[in-house]
Amino acid sequence: MNENLKTSDLALELGRGLENSAEFTALMNKYKCAIMEVETKLNVLNAEFSLNYDRNPFESIETRLKSPESILEKMQRKGFELTLTSIEENLFDVAGIRVVCAFQEDIYKLAELLTKQDDIRLLRTKDYIKHPKDNGYRSLHLILEVPIFLADGKKYMKVEVQFRTIAMDFWASVDHKLRYKKVIENEEQIITKLKRCANVISRLDQEMQDIRNMIEKSEAESSV
Ligand code: GTP
Ligand code: MG
Q1: Predicted structure pTM score
Q2: C-alpha distance from residue 214 to each of 5, 205, 221 (Å)
Q3: Based on CB atoms within 10 Å of each CB, which residue in 23, 124, 163, 219 is the most buried?
């Protein structure tokens, strides 16, 4: 099935709130623009850092637009009205960006530099690094609003940005893969082992950060 067909299926499901699927497509395009805006801001910060400090605060950025099926599934699961306005008001992760950093301190630095930009509105912060989830999941999640400029004016769009270290990303991708498997045996043991891995990874991130701090300190001392 191609993307347009899926989109029009959703439009049908959305029912009276939506006259035609062109409006849904237009909304998705706005989210795409919002993703581009935030991605550019992050790339600008990365470029500036490499120029001034000779290092990149992040290793990679991935972006994704939530699929019409996932949007519909989430709206129904949460019992939200199926209209475009309701999608915009209730879903915070239609536009998603994942930023993977080598070092934990760079996560906070980047998040700070991004959110202090005067066109960005910070709606919500979930710090699963300082407060990991029970299963061991760690990442910093921000819900932002970013303005996009259209022919008929300015519009703020919501974007979810997830910041992780490479090690946290490794853990989360393994956890994500296992999440869809049907566990019949040893479930408790698997949960315990995953959590233990998350703790090992957290210590690893701390050690890596310490190493970088030591190197930076020694560089600074040798240059005076
Ligand atoms: P969603 O309805 O799933 O978006 O959750 P939420 O609105 O409560 O937001 P939360 O910030 O907790 O999680 C949002 C996203 O973070 C998820 O869609 C995943 O991408 C990621 N995430 C959260 N918890 C976990 C986890 O335990 N494991 C993995 N692998 N990813 C997670
Ligand atoms: Mg989500």
Answers
A1: 0.91
A2: 55, 14, 11
A3: 163
